[in-house]
Write a structure and sequence with these properties.
The chain has helices at 10-29, 36-49, 59-62, 68-75, 79-85, and strands spanning 51-52, 55-56, 65-67, 92-94, 97-101. With 105 residues, it is of the alpha+beta class. It folds into 2 domains: 1-57; 60-105, no CATH class. It has a 3-stranded antiparallel β-sheet. The protein has a two-stranded antiparallel ribbon with strand order 1-2. A hairpin with a 2-residue loop joins strand 4 (92-94) and strand 5. The longest helix is centred in the first third of the chain and has 20 residues, at 10-29. It starts with 9 loop residues before the first helix and ends with a strand. The model has no long low-confidence stretch (mean pLDDT 83).
Length: 105
Amino acid sequence: MTDVVVTLDRTDLETCRVGLLWIQRHRELHRQPASPAIERAIRNLEKVLSMSASGPEDEAAQQNWITSKQAAERWGCSTRHVRRIAERLGGRKDGRDWQIPEREL
C-alpha cells in the first residue's frame, strides 16, 4: 500500500475540530461513553491551532468575536446549543451572552 500525504490548511483543521466537538456532544446527550480517541484528537487539534509559524499567538488580540446569536445563524442551530458548547469553542462570557471566536465557524 502506498502512503498518501494530505495537506490540511487551518480552515480544514478548525472544521475537523468543530465536527469532533459536535460528535462528542452527541455522545454526551445520548449517554454514550466518552471516546478517548475523539478527546485526544480534539486536544491535538487545539494544540496545533493555537500555534502560529513563530509560536503561540496572542489569540485574543488577533481574532474577531461574534455573538452566540450570530454563530447560531451561521451554523443553522439554536442559540441555546451554541451557548452550551461556547466554552469548548474558546468562547468568553460577555454579560449574559457568549462571544465566540469567529475562527471557530
